[in-house]
Write a structure and sequence with these properties.
The chain has a single domain, classed as Rossmann fold (3-Layer(aba) Sandwich), CATH 3.40.50. It has ten helices and five strands, in the order ααβααβαβαβαβααα. Helix 8 crosses helix 10. The chain starts with 8 loop residues before the first helix and ends with a helix. 44% of the residues are buried.
Amino acid sequence: MRRPPRVCAARMLLLLALVGGTSAVVAEETAEELPDKVLFVGNSFTYYNNSLHKHYRQLIWASGIHTTETSRARIMTISGGHLPEHSGGFEHVLGTDAWDVVVMQGHSLGPISEDTAEPFRKASRKFAAIARNHGTRPVFFMTWAYTGKPEMTAQLDKAYSAIGRELDAEVVPVGLAFATVTAERPDLPLRIADARHPSLAGTYLAACTFFAALYGQSPEGLAYDAGLGEETAMYLQRVAWKTVQAYAQREAY
């Protein structure tokens, strides 16, 4: 059965803040919109470090919003995969459950390379339409720049933001959060030695950014720290929340 589309909690929070809504109204309006079933579609950027979705779930459970019985997250990934390569299984896996959100992550160069940018956009349009036909909200995972290639941040921001606006789909600005931490804390590596894949801190930051974006609230203070330690976790939680807020405000105008 097709379900009605869900409204982005982060955008709802921003809208109510702009019109002077009270915190009570914010809670009432967003509670039913919080996703409990999220499917992540991507590649190794998603599955590294025992998978982004598992850290994301731990944050949800730590928040008390959902329990192990009331939430589900799953990944569908291809090593080195580009978004169009999921055409064979996308609709089938989407049909395995009543997913609230499907997160789409392209190859790190897919949206910005001349020979792969248009296939990325075509796949995005196709998959977003399929998702909505299933009553699932499409969301894009803005990835990060390689180590030593900071110019990729703006390129990825532009590409993901453009497809998000075109399809009226939320974009989770993980790449912008990475850029902030890289600039502020060069002592805290977010990528491993290959300059591309995420370290545990990088995956944790991505999970915090998804929590902040999909739930419209700060992950600051959540007890789950992925073994990074309280101080590091709190810093990454704070960056994730500030990044999501700034990006939502920017995209609202």
